[in-house]
Amino acid sequence: MKYYFSACLGSALLIIGDVFATRLTIVTEHLAPFQIVDKTSISGLSTEIVEATLRASPYQYTIDVHPWSLAFKRAVQEHNTCIYSLARLPIRETQFQWIGHIASATSSFYSLKRRKDIPLASVEDAKKFRTAVIQDDVTHQFLLSKGFEENSNLYATSNYDSLLTLLEVPSRNIDLVIINDDLIRYRLKRSEEIQQYQNLLEIDELQLDFHLACSIDTDRDIVETLSASMQDLEQNGTLPNIRNNWRSKLVEQP
């Protein structure tokens, strides 16, 4: 799915040459409330921050929405391509050029509320059960690093819409999912159905900082321009205001 936007300010119309002609490719996934994708548009907390940054730059851009594994692959490999919302992890540090911080988030193990047979006091306890995560997401990498094994106690799927549903499919034998807590709160705001799920354990090691980042093959002047734009918007209150507005839309988990 592709969305076309112009990020040129009025004054930028006077700019000619390579800078004005530069078009960036921005890749992301559907991950409400950070990225909310429908048939005609993309919105969300992170999208507003990224677009504010791009509007303050002289570049045009498109936003392409993919499953996370494909978005990540494109952002690693392609010229003048950036990605959001990307958790900044040591293993990824040299894979990208980092533009700036978007938001922070926590993740937890969830199960169906009717399940009373899953005592969970640690990540190690979860190895006794079968957990579903997003393919190639930080949660997937995290459980693999903790000794979880695919096709044994770990299952990976391609999108968040199917993740919670897996808990309700008996043939999948999924006991737990790891999911972003803000995503749960957002869905709670929109649907009573989410109340059938319970948070069993917040994962301290998965308190993440989401960033906008660009491929190593992105021109350095683009990286410096976007970084400066983001810093200016942070200092003048634009980005903090966006975060505060979105926090007011979320509700506390029961």
Strand order of the largest sheet: 1-5-2-6-13-7
Largest sheet: 6 strands, mixed
Low-pLDDT ranges: 8-17
Task: Please state the oligomeric state of the protein chains shown.
Answer: single chain
As for the number of domains, it is 2
Can you give the mean pLDDT? 88
Name the helix and strand elements from N-terminus to C-terminus, one letter apiece: EHEEEHEHEEEEHEHEHEEHH
Structural class: alpha/beta
The CATH class assignment of the largest domain is: Alpha Beta
What's the total count of β strands?
13
- How would you describe the shape? globular
Strand content: 25-35%
Tell me what the CATH architecture of the largest domain is: 3-Layer(aba) Sandwich
CATH topology of the largest domain: D-Maltodextrin-Binding Protein, domain 2
Gap between N and C termini, in Å?
Answer: 35 Å
Helix content: 25-40%
Kindly provide the radius of gyration, computed on alpha-carbon positions and rounded to a whole number of angstroms.
19 Å
Task: Please name the fourth-level CATH homologous superfamily of the largest domain.
Answer: Periplasmic binding protein-like II
Number of helices: 8
